[in-house]
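Posted in: Structural Biology > Protein-Ligand Complexes

Title: Requesting predicted complex, magnesium ion in pocket

I'd be grateful if someone could produce the 3D structure tokens for the following input. Sequence and ligand are given below.
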Amino acid sequence: MHQLILARYGEVGLKGKNRRMFENRLIRRMEEAMTGLPLKKISRTYGRIYVTMTGQVEAALHRLSHVFGLVAVSPAVGVPLDMAAIKAAAVKEMKAAAAEGYTTFKVETRRPNKAFPYKSPQVSREVGAEILKEITGLTVDVHLPQVVLQIELRRHQAYLYWRQLSCPGGLPLGVSGRSVLLLSGGIDSPVAGWMAMSRGLEIVPVYFHSFPFTSDRAQQKVVDLCRVLARYSGLIKLYIIPFTSIQTALREGGQERLQTIFMRRMMMRLAARVAEKEAAEALVTGESLGQVASQTVSGLAATEAVVNLPVLRPLIGLDKQQIMDRAKEIGTYNISIRPYDDCCTVFVPRHPEIHPDPVIVAEQETGLVAPRLIEEALADAETLFITTDWEGS
Ligand code: ATP
Ligand code: MG
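-- Reply #1 --
Done. Output follows.
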């Protein structure tokens, strides 16, 4: 049985003097992801991380396939640097592949350990011949094999593997600092959060809840979205900020065309306050360009004008179909499409302003929301700590 997992990570971004820090962070994230599984140790050599388990290798593979910074993981076997041992292990591995119905293979060998007496092509050839001799029903296909048996001749051992799960790539979470994610129950913002995380940026999600205009089920959606995002991030701290009184105050001021912009600006201000508290250095939203009336360049400008933090919009150049495809891959799509209104659909103006002038917006907005309402909303914010249960993932 496999007890070893070989993890590969991208070289990009891991070079230079930050490399050690990146690797340490990655390993820490791997350990976190495997909480509760029987992990024995994690070790590394150049470009490779080895994970030794005392059981539950499949579960470990699944969890590791959610760790940013990793490119791929494979169950592997390690054997002494000895041709007979390598051949025996190779035959055993390929018997397992044949039992799964695979019929064509090739062997690929790497020899970072130049002290090993046989060169890579010779190892591949000899091991391939042994497999053909021992297993009927397998043939070699060097161009399009169904199975590629990889052999790596390292300093202390030879490693063999052929199954591979792909991981999300990107950078280890945390290397780019921390951000506040404005997370609605929609399709876009969870994807935006995922993309920010993929560049090493931690997220602290904030959800503005407009009860009773939006139901508790809308809030539950956001919690469930966080549960999915937590597969990639580990523990999530979600802020739920009551938004009803602010929204009501905005609406009482009339100015229907500017309602969406007003609301976004209030969200930005509140999110910036959370950022301050959480030592976050950026805000992340699920806005794209041109998707809805408020997401024109001038709409985005009027929105972000009220904060000093950079506002990151990872979806800016994606269209809806691309965002939906990504949401399906991540696992958030089915939650996002549950039919409960968000506060923006409830309050959406019939004729929204498409090219708001920030100066006019600021003028019109003045005095609409008493500062006291903002302080109350922040004081009444709830925080939830959310982990994933790995069920249905
Ligand atoms: P989403 O699918 O993420 O809701 P959207 O395309 O529906 O995005 P809007 O509803 O206009 O766009 O919202 C734009 C962005 O504002 C969202 O992506 C999100 O970042 C933020 N946002 C909107 N409503 C909320 C909310 N209730 N709580 C937190 N953030 C919100
Ligand atoms: Mg929305």
